[in-house]
Amino acid sequence: MTELEYKFTYDLLFKMIFTKHVKLLKSLVATLLSIPLESIEQFEIRNAEIPPETLGDKFCRLDINMAVNGQRVDLEVQVDNDGDFPERSLYYWAREYSTALQVGDSYSDLPKAIVISIVSFTMFKDYDGFHSEFHALEVTRHTQLTDKFCLHYFELPKLPVENLSKTDRLSLWLALFKAKTEEDLKKIEEMEVEEMQEAISAYKTVTVTSEFKEATRLRELARLNEASALAHAKREGKSEGIREGIQTGLQKGRQEGIQTGLQKGRQEGRQETLKEVIDNLKNSGISDDDIKRILKI
Q1: Residues 156, 162, 166, 171: what is their CA dihedral angle, to the nearest 10 degrees?
Q2: What are the counts of helices (DSSP H) followed by strands (DSSP E) for the chain?
Q3: Which sign, positive or negative, has the C-alpha torsion 165, 171, 175, 178?
Q4: How many distinct structural domains can be found in the chain?
Q5: What is the pLDDT of residues 66-82, one digit of tens each?
Q6: Domain range holding 162?
Q7: Residue 61 within any structural domain of the chain
Q8: CA quadruple 119, 124, 130, 135: dihedral positive or negative?
């Protein structure tokens, strides 16, 4: 097996392929939303550009934002699970929805906002299906509050790829994103589904361009710089922790030394006082047995 150097889930590659091949993107979106391709009358990519200066930003998000039949649709791929992805995608939905309101518009004019996430990790461990769709529903009656809220999650680890069918376009598209080896792509290509062949051809074309290679260099440089900065901060934090630990230990040692000295002093003081009392009693002619009885020693 020959592992792919770049996978469809690589966000930079994903954005370059589908913003340069709008026909493929339109088909992908129609399939993910389970709507007929011919029903899409309006289709516009709202953020096709990838400014080079943003590739060095660790918060750079290479999603594809679209207007589809008057709706706001945001499509992204996510490889790493940082533990807060549901909240993150909800934030993206809120941003899409809130920024659509224009001056003079009423709230009823806000368009439906849809966020579609193709993820390389398992999100819902209590559910075996690979597709989850969320809406705003009342918890008891399941009455829909509004149709303008929608989140889609496609979990690639759950996708079965053993028996792909030519007619199952959703599984075919997601199988491209799940592909990890050249053999995986070849298997899909040999099924002779025109869209899949076009997508694989676009993949091969984009990955050899100088534009993609330079953008990848900048992207990876930013990640290396971030990793280096984190490693440096970790080392500095560890060194500072050691210094603080030594200082705390010394201070505690001094305090314990003082406490021990005071206790020893008090003990020796008591012993010295007791000796003087015994000597005085003896000088007074009192016997040793009477002294022990008197002092209870």
Answers
A1: -10
A2: 8, 6
A3: negative
A4: 1
A5: 999 999 999 999 999 98
A6: 11-208
A7: yes
A8: negative
